Amino acid sequence: MNDLGLVYRTIERAEPAAVEKLSRYGVATIHEAMGRVGLMKPYMRPVYPGARTCGTAVTVLAQPGDNWMLHVAAEQLGKGDVLVVACMTDNVDGMFGELLATSYRARGAVGLVIDAGVRDVAEISAMKFPVFSKAINARGTVKATLGSVNVPIVCAGAAVNPGDVVVADDDGVVVVPRALAAQAADASEAREAKEAATRKRLAAGELGLDIYGMREKLAAAGLKYVD
Amino acid sequence: MNDLGLVYRTIERAEPAAVEKLSRYGVATIHEAMGRVGLMKPYMRPVYPGARTCGTAVTVLAQPGDNWMLHVAAEQLGKGDVLVVACMTDNVDGMFGELLATSYRARGAVGLVIDAGVRDVAEISAMKFPVFSKAINARGTVKATLGSVNVPIVCAGAAVNPGDVVVADDDGVVVVPRALAAQAADASEAREAKEAATRKRLAAGELGLDIYGMREKLAAAGLKYVD
Amino acid sequence: MNDLGLVYRTIERAEPAAVEKLSRYGVATIHEAMGRVGLMKPYMRPVYPGARTCGTAVTVLAQPGDNWMLHVAAEQLGKGDVLVVACMTDNVDGMFGELLATSYRARGAVGLVIDAGVRDVAEISAMKFPVFSKAINARGTVKATLGSVNVPIVCAGAAVNPGDVVVADDDGVVVVPRALAAQAADASEAREAKEAATRKRLAAGELGLDIYGMREKLAAAGLKYVD
Amino acid sequence: MNDLGLVYRTIERAEPAAVEKLSRYGVATIHEAMGRVGLMKPYMRPVYPGARTCGTAVTVLAQPGDNWMLHVAAEQLGKGDVLVVACMTDNVDGMFGELLATSYRARGAVGLVIDAGVRDVAEISAMKFPVFSKAINARGTVKATLGSVNVPIVCAGAAVNPGDVVVADDDGVVVVPRALAAQAADASEAREAKEAATRKRLAAGELGLDIYGMREKLAAAGLKYVD
Amino acid sequence: MNDLGLVYRTIERAEPAAVEKLSRYGVATIHEAMGRVGLMKPYMRPVYPGARTCGTAVTVLAQPGDNWMLHVAAEQLGKGDVLVVACMTDNVDGMFGELLATSYRARGAVGLVIDAGVRDVAEISAMKFPVFSKAINARGTVKATLGSVNVPIVCAGAAVNPGDVVVADDDGVVVVPRALAAQAADASEAREAKEAATRKRLAAGELGLDIYGMREKLAAAGLKYVD
Amino acid sequence: MNDLGLVYRTIERAEPAAVEKLSRYGVATIHEAMGRVGLMKPYMRPVYPGARTCGTAVTVLAQPGDNWMLHVAAEQLGKGDVLVVACMTDNVDGMFGELLATSYRARGAVGLVIDAGVRDVAEISAMKFPVFSKAINARGTVKATLGSVNVPIVCAGAAVNPGDVVVADDDGVVVVPRALAAQAADASEAREAKEAATRKRLAAGELGLDIYGMREKLAAAGLKYVD
Predict the structure, then answer these.
(1) Whole-complex ipTM
(2) Dihedral sign (CA D118, D122, D124, D128)
(3) CA distance linking residue F85 with residue F169, whole number of Å
C-alpha cells in the first residue's frame, strides 16, 4: 500500500517566473504573505551562515541511516531544483556530503533541504552549496534499503509535493505549493512594500501602537496602565 | 489574582554608573563575582556571534505565539534599556524581527533578551542590534491576548525584576538585581584584576594546582597518583 | 570498586607518525576509513567555526558541576595531547574557560574535548585553542569532589582510552584506538585518493549510480521507475 | 492562501465495515501491514495505560495555546469519530480536559489524538475516554484566534485527512487513508494469522533464523561466526 | 552577594485553613482560578500514578549532583510541609530516595517537589509518599558543597517563596503565593461549582458553543462554515 | 578495523552464585555499592511498572532501524542471559516485539535492555518479560545490514562487555563487570544491612544530620543558621 521503491520521473514544476519572483523575498515574508502556513520546524538550520536557496522540489523518502535514494535522486534533478529529503523515522546520520553536493550542482540543483544530518561542513561551505539540515554529523550511512523519489512527503513537519517551491534562508525553510506560487510571490511583494513604509516611520520614532492602530483594541481587551 | 493586562509605566532603574561599570565585564566574570547566581539557562544564545549588551530591564510577560505586548512595551523603553521577554508557557515562535528592532533602537533600547524565537536574522545581524533568544524561527505570531509589562518575571529560569541590570554576551545572559548592581560591578573588577595576574603565571607554565594551593586539599580528599 | 581519586601518570601514547598522518584527514574520512566506528554523538560541536585538532588523549572522569580534576589533569598534559573529559552524569556547566586554555596551551596541549559546557567563548576563539563541547555556559563549577585522570571513559557515547588519538573538526569528534592509529591513517589516505577521482567524475556530470555501479543492485532490490 | 477560519461540515468518512475490522488489530500490526507508513511520532502517548481507540478522523488545525477550535469541532463530531488536533507551531499547553471529554463523548466521539497537551488526567482516566497526546499539562489556553476544522493537517509528523481512519493503542497512533481502509484491514488480518503460526514455533524453541530462512542471506552479507 | 550557605529557620507559612481548602481542588482548577499563573513546567511528573499533595513550602537551593542540603532541610520540616528543591543548574541525579522519604514523613512532611531526579521508586510508591520530580535516576549524589534552605527559588520555571502553598497531582504542580492562598481557594471553589453545572449540560449533549455563547464571537472573528 | 559482521559464540559469563546474589538487590543499592559507576542513562525505562531483571549480558551492536542482528542473537542466548542492544547511531525505531520476546524466553533469556525502541507493549507486559528501553514505538525495522554479537558495546552511556551482569528495575539499569560481580554483591549486601539500621532510626524521628554526623562538616564548610 505504500509507495516505497518507486521513482516518479515526470513531475510538474512551479512556473519559473513565480519561482524567480519568490527568490527575491525572505522566508519570513513569504510565510506571512501566505497566511502563516508552510513553514518547516525551526530545527532546520543552514549549514553555513547566509546560505539561501529558492527552487522547485524533487522529493525523497528515505530509510533512517540509509542514503541510497540520494544517489537515485541525483538523476532526477534538473536545473533549479532543490532536493528535499524526509526520513521514514527520526534520524540524524550524515546522509549527505561534499561528493553528493558536487554531483547535485553538476546536475543543476540549487540546494538541499534534509530532515537528517549532513557532513563535510567545511567543504560544503567553501562550495557555497546551500544546505539546510537538522544536524551536522560525520556518521556515514549504508546503501541497503529502498525508499522513493518524487512522492508526497512530510519533511520537518511540513507537507511537500514534488514541484512545490522551497525557499530557505537564515530564518528557516518554507514550502509554497506549486499552484500557489505566483499568488504567494505577489503577496510577498505587497507585504514587503508595506513594510518598507512602516520601517521608515518606526525608525523615526513612531510607535507600532499608533502605526497599526492598536491602542483602541488593547483598551477594549482591558489593558490598563499603572503609574 | 494575576497581573495580566497591566503596564507599569514607572520603574526604578539601576544606577547608570553601576550599569556602565558592569558593561566592561563579561557574563562569566559577573556571574562568578556575584557568587554564581542570576544566570539564565544556557539555551539562550546570541543571534549573531559577538553580540553583546548591558542595560536595564524592561520586562514583558507574553502569551505563547502572541507578540502584542512587544508592541506595547516599545513605548515603555528608554535610553539604555534591554527588553526582557518571558512567555507564559514554552514557545519558540518568532515574536520579534527587524521592524521591532528598528522601533526599539529608535526608542534608545540597547538589546533584547527573549525566552522564545526571533526572525529576520540577517537584517538584525546587519543592524548589530544585540538579540539573545531561545530559537530562530520565521513563524509569525498573532496579536490577540494581553500579557503585562514591567511585572516580575521568570525568564529562562532566572528571576528578573524591572530595572535590574541584564548583561549578555557569547557566554550567555546574567541578571544583576538593581540593588546589587554597584556591588556586583566592584566585585567583577576585583575578580578580573586577580585573573589577569593568574593568567600571566599560567601562560608561563605554572600550574593552577600550585597557584591556587590545591595540592594539600586534593591529598586530604584522598587523591592518589599511580605511576 | 571504582577508579575514583586516581591519577595515572604513565600512559602509552599513539605513535607520533600515525598521529601526524591522521591530522591530514577529516573526521568523516577517518570515521569511514575505520568502518564507521569511534564517533562521538553529534551534539559535540566546535566552540568556533573552523576549529580543528588531532592529538593523543589524556582522559578525565569528573563529577557533574565540579572542575577540580581539570586542574589536576593540567599537570599530566604533554606536547600534542588533547584533554578528553567525561562527566559521571549529564551536565552542561561551564567547566573550562580561558584561564585553563592558557594553562593547557602552556603545557603543550593542542585541544579539549568535553562532554559538558565551556565558557569564555570570545577569548578561546581569539586564542584559537580548539575546543569541542556539548554546550556553552557561563555557569561556573565547584572544586569539591574527586574524579580520576587517565582511566578509560565513555565520552559522548564513545569509549576513550588514554593515549588514543582524538581527531575533531567541524563535522564532529572521532576516536582512533592507539593500536589502530597507523592502520586508520593508511586507510584514510586510501579513501581520500579514491574520493578525489570520484569527485572529478561527479563534477563532470557522471552519476554515482553509474560510478558506483548501483543500478543493478537497485533493480534487484525492486526499484521501479514510473513515467 | 491558507484555510484558516474555515469549518468544513461535509466530510466523507471511511467505510464503517473497514473501520470495524481495523479496530480488531493493533497499531504495530496495521502499520506493518500497510508497508510501514502512516505512523505518528513516538512522543504521542496514551493518557492512561491500556487506552485504545479506532475511528474516523475529524481534524483541527489550532493556534498554539488556544483551544477555541476544539469547541467549534465538537459540533462536527459524529458517532465513531476521533478528533485529531494539530497546532500551527509546537505547543504543549493543556488544550483539552474533562469537560471537553464529556462533550465529545456525548456527541458520539470515541477518542482524541492531539499534538499538544491535555489535563484532568485522573478524570479522563476514570471516564475511560481514550486520549493520546504529546504532553500532560495543567496549563490552560485562551480562546482568541481562529484555526480550522476538517482541513488536511500534519499531526505529529503524519499527514491526516478528514475521514481517514485513526487507530491508537499503547504502541502509538497510526493513520490509515480513507481509500485504503479495507485493504489495510485485510492485510492486517493476513499478517496476524501468519504471526500466530510463527509464535507457536518460536515458543517451541525454533529460531527466527530458520523460520524466516535468514541464514543464507546473512552468510551472503558476510556474517561470520567466531568460536 | 548570594544566599548560599544559609538556613532560614523562621518562615511564615500560609494559613492552615486556606491550605486545607486548597487541598480539595485539583491543580488545573487552582491554576485557572488564579488566572493561569504559578504552574511549574510540565516535565514535573508524579513518581507514581495518583500521587497528590498540598502543603506549605520549605525551599532548598542545591548544587547539581549534591544532596547535602536535603539532609539539612529535614530538620526544618514541620507538619504539613512540602519540600521544594531547585538546583543551581540543570541536573537529573537521584538526589532523594526511600531513606529521606522515611525521615521527611517522620518529621510531618507531606511531599517532595524536586527539579532533579529521585530513586527508590518502588519503595516510595509502596510508602505512598507523594513525590514529583523531573526524572527517575538511580544515580547517587555527593555531600560536598553548601546550598541554602528557605530562600526564594525558581523551581521548574516557577518562583517559590518559603511558606507558599504547593499543590501537586497527576496534572502537574502549582504554586500559590502565601498571601493569596485564601483568595485562590475561594476562587477554586467558585470555579468548581460553575464547572459542575456545565458538565451536566455537556453530558446531555449541549455544546460549549452555546453554553459559553461563543457563536457570535466566532462569527465576528470571521469563522466560516463550508458545506 | 571494526568488528561488524562478527558473532562471537563463546563468552565467559559471570559466576552464577554472584549473579544470584546480585539479583536480591536494587539497582540504586548496587550502583552505590560499586562506588557510583556503571549506570546507564536515566532515559532507559521499564516497559511496564515493576519490571525487574538480573542476568548475564549477551551484547548486540546494530544498525539504526535494522533488527536483523536481534534474530542472530537469539541463537546465542542461554539460560539466565539478558540481551543488551546498542545502536551504531541514535535510533528509537521499534526493533523488538512480542514474537522476539517469545523466542528469547524460549531460549532461557530473562530480559532485554535496548538503547532504542520496542513495541507490542501490551503483549510484553502481559507476558511479564522484562524489557528496558529508550522508547516505545510501533515503527518496524528492516533486515538489511550486519552488526555484531558479543562485542564490547557502549549502551546508553555505559560500557558493557559480554558476560557482565546487568541488573534493571524501576530505578534504571546498572552494569556490573564480570570480574567484580561477587565483590559488588557482597558490597550491596553490606550496604543494605547498614541502611536497614538507618531506616529505623529515621522512622523514629532521628535526623540524618545526627546519624551521619554531618553537623560538624557543615559548620566547617560555613553553614549558617538564621532565625
Answers:
(1) 0.95
(2) positive
(3) 17
